[in-house]
Design a protein that fits this description.
The structure holds 2 protein chains of 2 kinds. Helix content of chain A is 30%, strand content 23%. By secondary structure, chain A is of the alpha/beta class. In chain A, strands 6-7-8-3-9-10-12-11 form an 8-stranded mixed β-sheet, with helices on both faces. In chain A, strands 2-1-4-5 form a 4-stranded antiparallel β-sheet. In chain A, α5 runs parallel beside α6. The relative contact order of chain A is 0.13. By secondary structure, chain B is α/β, with parallel strands linked by helices. Chain B is 32% helix and 24% strand. Chain B contains 12 helices and 12 strands. The two termini of chain B are 26 Å apart. Classes of the chains: A alpha/beta, B alpha/beta. At the A-B interface, α6, α7 and α9 of A face α7, α8, α9, α10 and α11 of B.
Chain lengths: 321, 324
């Protein structure tokens, strides 16, 4: 049994179309996803691709219009009482801005104490020791318990966010852009911490990120999202090594490489005439077609189904590119 | 090496603020040169003083207890010595800026066209301003300018808004464009489009670009020379290819090792331990010494000066020769 199995996840929001008429649009549109115990899966996409919404839907904190999420084989929306609490402990989330999820008037010790007491994970006597252990595990000094969130740097705050998630001993950690607000010198430390904790505790990680290189470093498998749909999915190194979907190819070519200072690459998307952002969603055909350099008539008429490139590697494109 | 004359020549620039905690040495003795038609990158992490350096070029820094010293020669004028009226005339006309968040620089209740026109009217004598607005909008790749000039900022995406900012920045044909993290708020594919545009415009308009960024990939792709800043000082400077492949300073090496790559597999990345020192409580000796893996007694006692590695490549480290 897989740790997490999601089928046909669809999240719709009310919005307005080009003409100002109200309509429902799908932020996440029929996504299937499986995460095994201890596996690290990346969800990559640009702003508005639905990657964050998907992460939240998988934890049951974003209402779904359609689809179901199974956690160790059980539907998360059927959890009640003790089983719901146990799911809440088992699946934790950390965010881009840890300051936004820490109470500014609570010391770090108090914040961690609250988690342990709400979930009845340790007696009052045991808690101080547990808190010290947690801080130690995320590389923070045990003496920090009396400090307030504003007294910490960005990297330290992210460690606190991770410590709070770890307090519940989760088997799944959803990390939404955990390092995008941090300086590169600190990024590496946090990514190493997430990777190490995942290895030590066999904790699965769902890493939501826009940075391909970050996902490449942390994850075994990756899903590439475009306008609410998964356009390519497979083993990270294979997908980023030679991406098959034209959108993944475009994303990869857009990453400037510090090792490549020969000459600026030609941007495959010419600067004039093409939309400089995701075009309006349309219901027929491939959603990437309006931006795709290889698009043919068929792409605008038929929605492509996932094609298996090799075992575990799926590409949603009509053509082999 | 670029033999054209410098359009920008900063020497010993200091931007200090006196505060209750003591003197905050945010920028502390920067030397930096940009030649005509050259793209120079200024890189560093948050708090190193790179954005403040950029703002100082047009004397845009303000704040309690501000004290600036040194000299900033722009096209022959010393910015720090000029009267305010002259500096105001230079802003936009000689030095122009684009910033990270275009929506913060655009007026939400005025049309895009009117905002571009305002810049033109302020600095230039043009008989038909609307034609010039349309010309600038097509120059930066904004589609359908006759129609879109009547749009408001919220009707544009982030990438489009940044194109509007570029159109405004270029309205007066500046000789130096300062781009401070111009694409940090944008998606990667949009970032690639904006930089393609900037490179095209630079060769078309023959201007110099000072690119402020934390992204070493963008440095590799766009700049000819680079200055690496740390804690208010330049730690290393030189041609981009030289610095990125043969970095001499432990901080530059640390930064390069900490960037995750797509094309290179590393088993384990190494970050830089510790944090940037507070600008009012600087360490003794070298500013990077508390975080440096190879720091010795000399580093804790005496701050190193800039040492020449080879033509055009300079480094601020006592031990750069000894470490591989």
């Amino acid at each position: 049994m897989s740790l997490l199995e999601a089928k046909g996840i669809t999240v719709r929001y009310r919005g307005h179309d080009d003409k100002g008429h109200r309509h429902l649009w799908a932020a996440v549109d029929g996504v299937n996803l499986v995460v095994e115990e201890g596996e690290r899966v990346g969800i990559v996409g640009e702003s508005g691709s639905g990657k964050t919404t998907l992460g939240k839907a998988l934890l049951g904190i974003e209402p779904m219009a359609d689809g179901q999420v199974l956690f160790r084989g059980q539907n998360i929306h059927e959890f009640k009482g003790a089983s719901l609490e146990s799911f809440r402990r088992g699946a934790q989330m950390i965010f881009q801005d840890p300051l936004g999820s820490l109470n500014p008037r609570m010391t770090i010790g108090a914040a961690l104490n609250e988690v342990l007491s709400v979930h009845r994970l340790a007696t009052r006597m045991e808690r101080p020791e547990r808190i010290k252990t947690l801080l130690h595990q995320v590389g923070l000094d045990a003496g920090y318990t009396r400090r307030y969130p504003h007294e910490f740097s960005g990297g330290q705050r992210q460690r606190i966010g991770i410590a709070r998630a770890l307090a519940l001993g989760p088997s799944l950690l959803v990390a939404d852009e955990p390092v995008s607000a941090l300086d590169v010198s600190v990024q590496a430390q946090i990514l190493n911490l997430i990777r190490d904790l995942s290895e030590e505790r066999r904790m699965a990680v769902l890493l939501v990120a826009h940075d391909l290189a970050v996902v490449n470093y942390v994850c075994h498998r990756v899903l590439i999202m475009y306008q609410g749909r998964v356009v390519e999915e497979g083993p990270t190194r294979a997908v980023f090594g030679r991406p098959r979907h034209p959108y993944t190819q475009l994303l990869k070519s857009a990453v400037p490489d510090p090792d490549d200072f020969a000459s600026p690459p030609a941007n495959p998307e010419s600067q004039n005439g093409l939309p400089s952002s995701a075009p309006a969603r349309h219901s027929v055909g491939c959603s990437f077609a309006p931006r795709c350099l290889h698009a043919k008539k068929q792409c605008f008429l038929e929605h492509p189904e996932p094609r298996e490139e090799s075992p575990g590697w799926y590409v949603r494109c009509h053509f082999r590119l | 090496m670029n033999s054209s004359p410098p359009i920008l020549d900063i020497s010993d620039l200091k931007v200090h603020f006196s505060s209750e905690e003591g003197v905050i040495r945010a920028v502390d003795g920067i030397d930096l040169v940009v030649h005509e038609n050259e793209t120079v990158a200024l890189v560093g992490e948050s708090g190193c003083g790179k954005s403040l350096t950029a703002l100082a070029l047009a004397r845009l820094v303000s704040g309690a207890g501000l004290k600036m010293s040194g000299s900033i020669q722009v096209a022959g004028d010393d910015i720090l010595a000029l009267p305010e009226s002259r500096v105001r005339a230079l802003r936009g006309a000689t030095i122009s800026y684009i910033f990270q968040d275009p929506s913060a620089s655009l007026n939400p209740v005025k049309t895009i066209g009117n905002q571009i026109a305002e810049v033109i009217r302020l600095h230039r004598k043009v008989s038909n301003v609307t034609d010039e607005v349309i010309r600038l909008m097509s120059l930066v790749g904004l589609p359908n300018p006759e129609f879109r000039r009547k749009s408001y900022p919220h009707q544009f995406s982030g990438g489009m808004q940044q194109r509007v900012m570029i159109a405004m920045a270029l309205a007066c044909r500046p000789r130096i464009l300062v781009a401070d993290e111009p694409t940090t708020a944008l998606d990667a594919t949009i970032q690639a489009q904006i930089f393609t545009l900037l490179r095209d415009l630079q060769s078309q308009l023959k201007m110099s670009v000072l690119l402020i960024t934390h992204n070493l990939g963008l440095v590799a792709q766009n700049a000819a020379r680079v200055y690496v800043m740390y804690s208010g000082r330049v730690m290393e400077s030189g041609p981009v290819a030289e610095i990125l492949s043969h970095a001499a300073h432990p901080y530059t090496k640390g930064l390069l090792a900490a960037v995750p790559r797509l094309n290179r597999h590393v088993d384990r990345m190494v970050g830089i331990d510790g944090a940037v020192p507070h600008p009012a409580r600087l360490p003794s000796g070298c500013r990077f010494q508390p975080r440096c893996p190879g720091a010795g007694d000399l580093c804790r006692q005496i701050e190193p000066g800039m040492d020449r590695v080879k033509e055009g490549h300079e480094v601020r480290c006592h031990y750069w020769k000894q470490k591989a």
